[in-house]
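Quick one: structure tokens for this chain, please?
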Amino acid sequence: MSPQPLIIALPKGRILDEALPIVRRAGIEPEAALGDDSSRALRFSTNLPHVSIIRVRSFDVATFVAFGAAHLGIAGNDVLMEFDYSEIYAPLDLGIGKCRLSIAQRTDMTEDLDLSRLSHVRIATKYPNITSKWFAEHGIQAECVKLNGAMELAPALGLCPRIVDLVSTGATLKANGLKESATIAQVSSRLIVNRTALKVRSEEISGWIERFRSAVAG
């Protein structure tokens, strides 16, 4: 009896470019279309008949793995922190996709982010759970305005004086008249595993975890 297909969820965009060398070192060679941004395909074959890859939005990787539609995946710890799925096990930091989750505000704002003087803030972000929790830990109520993109426009157009978003070089913030005022978390991408799959297919999934561990080390 042939084994049930193993599904690996990978994120679109920059992280995919960084992840592919690790995937290949782990022994998986995807079809060429996976790295083609113009391809509209969502599922891709590999050199292993029982292993296929799905390419989805970074936030959706965790959802596919948590609900068992994919067995393994690669997701940033920002996504894992935001959703906090109990069904996900993250055994390995891949050391890619490094950036930080930061609070930013307009450069012309005279007041800095003085946590000791604030009781309420209005923040534009696609990370409402992380943001609310971080400010609550500092005794501040955060009113989060959920945006999925163009975050940097929010302060300039008066929607919110501050944002919480991923920052790499800071060039995008600077180009939009913003500056970092605090860092919430350092971010990198992790190998994630569905816990049920790990129990049911323990030897197989554990073997893949070790393959990826060796790929990162090597």
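Residues 99-186 form a domain with the D-Maltodextrin-Binding Protein; domain 2 fold (CATH 3.40.190.10).
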